[in-house]
Predict the structure.
Amino acid sequence: MRWGHHISPVMMAPLRSAALCLVALLALGSPSWAQKTDPKGADAKPGDTKAAPTDPDIKWQPGSKLDWSQFKGGMPKKEGLHAETVATMWPTYKCNADGTYTLDVQAQFSQKHSTVDPANTGPDLLAHEQIHFDIAQKHAIALKKKLDEIFKAKCKCKMSAKDIDEFNSAVKAAETAEYTALAAEQK
């Protein structure tokens, strides 16, 4: 039985752009629209982090298990593979002008991009694919811990240009390290 795995990290450029927008809010002060807590929908403003995808992605939940009906990407693209799980970490955060912040990192399973050959489904293969989703959650927890430490140390009122650069570098380094660790563990 051949299994395929694909971990699709969130593109780093949008995350860096979101971090830069958030840091700009810190440097320029907090306009009234920056106090919104829900970055979704028509109320979203520049500087809000992108909301985690809702449908068709599935957020990792304790005790929840994948089932074959959630693999909606069709047949695996690579010849000879029976299934391919696409899971990623999705960080969302906001550093406010007063030095407070919100932070979450979720593991997400992509139904749209995860594939299975219906002729080769079985409980062992499904359990194997679940492990990949669980590994993504393990790394989401680790990334959240790293980002929380960075935010505690660097998210503060009236940041200087040097503070902003250090904040951005620290966030980028933490995200890159954890995505690299996740990809290495999935091989």
Summary: Confidence is low (pLDDT under 50) at residues 1-48. The radius of gyration is 19 Å. Residues 4-28+47-186 form one domain. DSSP finds three helices and five strands in the chain.
